[in-house]
Amino acid sequence: MWSWAKRQLLGFWRILRRPSRHYSLGFLTVAGFVVGILFWGGFNTALEATNTETFCTSCHEMRDNVFQELKSTIHYTNRSGVRATCPDCHVPHNWTDKIARKMQASKEVWGKIFGTINTREKFLDERLILANHEWQRLKANDSLECRNCHNYDSMDLTRQASRAAQVHKLWLGSGEKTCIDCHKGIAHRLPDMTEIPQG
Asked: Any residues with CB less than 8 A from the CB of 31 and at least 6 apart, and which?
């Protein structure tokens, strides 16, 4: 039994050491592993670099429109000094959800290339459609990004205004509604809601 296992192990070792045309299978395996680590490191570095407020506000469409609105809200400046940045509210924290959101956001690059909202007037014309897409996304994922910071189980309802406490207990506590159902426009101005977007 031991001699058979030893022969198998030696045979496997010979295969690993056997050269392909120029390199052994063992070298190719180790090289592939190292290249995989380098690729993963580069990919993750690029992912994190595109997940910063600096990156988000590097284009004038965001910097001149919605980022200016964020600066006047409690999510930007508050007594505790805890500040939400663009990715905190628009990109899920879990890796798989983050990748899915980044893939969704890649189509927004087309808007940048083709100048869909490159002027204030174009931005205002598209604002309701853009907001509606974001509200639908947040509704579909149960306001996941909000819940990364605002956990219902950690809320002290006794320290909230009575109306807020009642509504949170009724809707969030029951799971019938999610944050975005009531908190549209919490960090950005609401669009003109008189016209309903198509689609």
From this structure: 23
